[in-house]
Amino acid sequence: MSNFKNKELEKAILSNQDIEVKKGFLGLGKKYIYKPTKSNIRIVCEYFNNEKGNNIEKLLSKPIDEIAKEIETKPQIEGDQMGNIQLEAAISDDGQFVAYQIAKYSDFEYIAEGEVKIYTGEEAKIVAKAL
User: Fold this and answer.
1) Is 121 helix (H, G, I), strand (E, B) or coil?
2) Is the CB of residue 116 less than 8 Å from the CB of residue 100?
3) Least C-beta-crowded within 10 Å: which of 85, 88, 100, 114?
4) φ and ψ at 17, to 5 degrees?
């Protein structure tokens, strides 16, 4: 059972033709499936302080080949228990689908920044490793 904190990300996932939504027992909860590989999708939500958040934003804004090089040479950016930058992602268990969006804390809530990014195939595997 997965619950999105970010409604824009949830909307993008629900409108994607490659995603199937299954209702849980007695209609409680939802399960998301990436149809091309029949893989479960898990929802991940990480929080970062300003410094780490800026680093993850810079990393994810690079071209895929640069992301691949960087994740091979640098350690993964670890999340914090609390932070003013939130990264919420939907990642298939096989790594063939990734969707994410970054939000920043402002006025007592997280406000989405930019658009939802969606990757499939080999690009998704690279981005999933970065997350």
Assistant:
1) helix
2) yes
3) 114
4) -65, -20
Whole-number percent of the chain with pLDDT over 90:
44
CA 66 – CA 43 distance, rounded (Å): 25
Q: What is the pLDDT of residues 18-53, one digit of tens each?
A: 999 888 777 677 889 999 999 999 999 999 998 998
* Bridge partners, 33 (sequence order): 20, 40
User: Can you tell me the distance from the alpha carbon of 97 to that of 80, in angstroms, rounded to the nearest whole number?
Assistant: 24
Q: How far apart are CA 52 and CA 56, in angstroms?
A: 6
Half-sphere exposure for 29 (CA within 13 Å, toward CB): 8
Six-digit token pair at 89? 């992602």
**pTM score, two decimals?**
0.86
Sequence letter at residue 107? D
Q: Specify whether the CB–CB gap between 1 and 31 falls below 8 A.
A: yes
Q: pLDDT per residue over 105-126, tens digit each?
A: 888 888 888 899 999 999 999 9
pLDDT digits (tens, 9 = 90+) for 46-86: 999 989 988 989 999 999 999 999 888 887 788 888 888 99
